[in-house]
Amino acid sequence: MARRLLSILRKRPAALLTARRDLVHSAPMVRPSALCLLAALVFGCGGAASSGAASPPPVALDLPRPALVATDASEPRPVEGRKGDSYDVFIDGKAYAAAEGRPFFIEVGGNRVEAVIRARAVLQYAKHDISFQYPKDMTISEEPTENITTITLETSDSSLVMIQLYSLDLEPDHVESLLVASLEKEMSSRGAVFTPNSGATETRRIDDKNVDGKRLEFALAKEPMRTAVYSFRVGRRTVALVLQRSDSDAAAAEKRFRTITESLRVR
Predict the structure, then answer these.
(1) What is the pLDDT of residues 135-159, one digit of tens each?
(2) Minimal CA–CA distance to 95: which of 70, 74, 114, 75?
């Protein structure tokens, strides 16, 4: 895959900032951490992004085959185990070395029980008055500022999700129009060719309701792309959602998008 250095201008009320980011894809993508989207147009972006994927993924304990290594768990120290073991599992005062997906034995109430550690396929995000589920193959980061919180989810392919939660009362139609205009301008400056169907309305289930949005269709570096923009109100707060993927990643990307949008809730 080609590595492209993408620089995008982000506007603040009193200054113009430039953000750069390495992207790994056959076509250059507009990544939201670089774009900051409406924050760039209204409030500006600021603050250091913090990754929601800093800690190891949650694990689930299953039942079902062999090799037990147990030690006194009174001291937090690595447990000697088999090659490939990457977890120390602490149960009832004992520590067991384990690898994801490989069965091992534990002692429970004097009985030897087979167990398996598996990472959850779907993880949960619940912060800043917003919650949703997302696939474990997506990397999540957040950038909270005074008036806007931006949450970004990315994968190694073209799948991209950006959620922005505004603390001020903004008209969703105005937010959506600004986002669409900004994206069209940016893509055109990079040589994108838009299809006749670009700008059509599409409906998606978000926050337990049907939300209309705008779908942009274009080819960038000969790679067919699709970006969908939605905005809706929850109480006095406005939420913006951007979904982006290439046509070649459509099946996997749309599955990820549904996991997020159908579980998304805003308080």
Answers:
(1) 999 999 999 988 899 999 999 999 9
(2) 70
Alpha helices in 25-108 (DSSP H): 32-35, 37-41
Give the CATH number of domain 3-54+121-266; options: 3.30.310.50, 3.40.50.1110, 3.40.1000.10, 1.10.760.10. 3.40.1000.10
223-234 and 209-220 strand pairing = antiparallel
CA angle 230, 149, 200 (to 5 degrees): 10
Q: Enumerate residues 6+ apart whose C-beta is below 8 A from 27.
A: 158, 220, 221, 222, 223, 225, 246
Strands of the chain (E only): list them: 3-11, 16-24, 50-51, 59-62, 70-72, 87-91, 94-98, 104-108, 111-119, 122-127, 130-135, 139-144, 148-154, 160-166, 193-194, 200-206, 209-220, 223-234, 237-246, 265-266
